[in-house]
Batch of 2 targets.
Target 1
Amino acid sequence: MSEIFASPYFGVALSIVTFGIGVKLHQKLKMQVCNPLIIAIVLTSAVLLIFGIPYDAYNVGGEVINMFLAPATACLAVAVYSKIDILKAYWLPVLVGCAAGSAASMGSVYGLCRMFGLDESLTVSLVPKSVTTPIAVSISSPAGGVVPVTVVAVIFTGILGGIFAPLLIRIFKVSDPVAAGLAIGASSHAVGTSRAIELGEIEGAMSGLAIGVCGIITVLFSMFVL
Amino acid sequence: MKIIKQTGIIFTVCWLSLLIEKALPFAFPASVIGMVLLLLCLVTGLLKIEHIQEKADFLLGNMAFFFVPAGVGIINYFDVLKNYAIQLVIICVVSTVITFAVTAWSVKFTVRLLERVTKRAGRGISERESLQGKNAEEGRKEDE
């Protein structure tokens, strides 16, 4: 029976259908919690568990989709390049903000993991959780992290940022849109950025820029730490 | 054909970044090398944005989808989630707030510092100019 599901077509088709449902629900409900990726993961997992389909069979198709991760990461360069003029104008605040934010994120996660007594592999899975998923995975996976835990933590962090960004701006009295945008991008990557775009043009651009810059800086930091 | 060409360009960049990853003496993720490589190609004009625009829009626009299989892998780690759910939530919430505050403050600090430096530099120039003016005047007086 599982040979039928071990065809790559099954995994790819199931992923597309569940993600499609996720996108539709997200558009209908307009809630940050209804992240299309979370919905797709929950629905796909439910289908596998209910019908007793082994993960390895599904993942034959999964591997096909995974092949696009590296090219998609490379294309973050296009997102940075489209904002190159803003980067040139604000290069110092962007670099300082992203470096400080990346260090704060990695440091605080590491400290909290130690405090809760989490083991090495879980800690490594969580440390890069504030950067965009492809970069977080490429940091956590070679260092011995659990990739699915990283993915879930990254998305959860993004959703948190998306929901609470306006509240955080008020609590910390961030009046400068450059600072607000960079803070959103540094703390909650692409999911936060979609909210930053709603707050304003400068906020959106800065947040988008922070995704790529924080990603590279976090990789550099992790080379020395992990 | 356009999309095939663009796919070819991006996949070539990814393959080259694998080669670079192997050649580097330290561990650096190939996907991030690919990103830096592509950015360098664009900045230097080796590649024009039109050469990859549609394919890049497709990959960036559907970025979340490519993580469905990686995320579904969580079904093999349900016990981890169950045992550490509260800790994981606290870690994510606290570190997100800290990251937000530190980034916002350091940007505010840098912008203020920059403003002060440019102001001082501006004042420096005007002081120098007025000094030069005085010197010139004094020189003229001496000439007289």
Target 2
Amino acid sequence: MLADIINPYFLQILSFILINILLAISVYVPLSSGQLSLGSAGFMGVGAYTSALLTIHFDIPLIIGILAGACVAGILGIIVGIPSLRLSGVYLAIATLGLGEVIRVIFVNWESLTKGSIGLTGIPQMGREILNFAKGFGFDPAMIGLKSNQFVYLVIVLILLLLVIATIWFVVRQQNSRVGRSLSSIQMDEKAAESMGINITYYKVLSFTQGAFLAGLAGALFAHVMGYISPSDFSYHRAVEILIFTVFGGSEVILGAVFGATFLTLVPEVLRFISDYRYIIYGIVLIILMAVRPQGIFDIHLLNRLKGLKRSKGGVR
Amino acid sequence: MVLKIQNVSKNFGGINALKDVTFSINEGEIYGLIGPNGAGKTTMFNLITNIFEPTSGEIIFNGENITALKSYKITEKGICRTYQNIRLFPQMSALKNVMVGGHCRSNAGVFSSVFRTKSQRKEEQELTKKAEELLELVGLLEFKDTFAENLAYGQQRRLEIARALASNPSLLLLDEPAAGMNEKETDSLYDLIKMVQSMGITVLIIEHDMPLVMKLCDRITVLNFGEKLAEGTPEEIQSNEAVIEAYLGKEEEEEIA
């Protein structure tokens, strides 16, 4: 029976995995044009707070709140992206990390709006909203043999899964096109890309903004899955965690971001039975990987081999 | 007249990399830019493609002042270059490298790329076809799926030329294309550049391989210490006293140093 398999606890972990995949992709996209952004936690916070405040105070539909959250983060991405064009590599990473902290501090201190470090509670929960909506049409989860909370988490997972698939689809299609070629040429050699007629400014701001939008989207979804948010959800630790997802899985390919987010979200959960040691193991896994395979689990060469594509003569890099 | 360099100077922190250089290139010509190391040849390329702007002077391309135009706009206008130290996109296949060259002659944006609109698919097909033709022209079609970094040195140089040609330039700038090539490769490079000329593309070439330059170029400008030393046909250059001095060095060597 379906009802016996569906465990709300597993579904909730699954929904965290899916949100983390979105966050990992939000680092991956700017990185595909050579921009190392650590601002994802900040953009995530902007998306979360925007959508939460809009839905709490103005009673607007969730979908519009979530879209607004993503868009506000995206617009902030444009505003920040243009001046940060002058920075690259580590300098950009530090600047975006600083941006994230500034955003967090604003959440903490703008108490009249954000309730400070206590955070926002009573944010409409996505699954419950949909359940209530469906009930309006006379639907009852019992009709498909589910308890209410099973239905709630199942709906959330399905929505998130759909969004993750759509995002991956979008990014992959974009990559295998004129736009994607421009992004990777900028990543590989910015000067050469420009002298091939590529407007670097446009493409760099484009991918930075896409990353900000995605992080904002993930943040808004996070708010409506959790039901409560506080500034500490979007701290420096979160920024580093997101970066680790992408780097661990392999930052050259989108599969790396997806795998990294999935694996590293699961590890602490799977190791829950040895609660005291699990983050030690998490740390050891990271150290071993970085020592053995600094480019992450997946890279282009591995993918090509997996696809059985004919590999060029030259040696292995 | 395709390109006109007018009284161009470039000053790097008090050092004159180029001083009041003037020359112009006619349509369909192969024009040589030669001179000892450090004479300012590559600097001239960087000024033409606006990697940096000249301190003074003007660069006129097809009657239009392009001195302050952004790099990518200059490529759109029809000037494309190769680099002295090859700058391909290493982890991209040869075919994709050339397709990037076609960037400014195509215009699919994010929306049409993601949704694969009809015009986008047609454009991609045309880009691919053209890139394959160019790879064939430079003799690299069989390596189209090979990463650029895995190609042999001479092949990389030819790939860079194919990539530049993909932008449909009317003026092609080649920065030491024969560097590091053996005699056989140099011969096929000669054929390739002649072929490019026959396609109606004007060529400005920096090269140290004198036999190649003399055989290839219609006219030549010699730079020395940032100044124009001489200009003329290969025959005139070969018999020019000042040029011989600059290359072989006479008693004046101490004076210059």
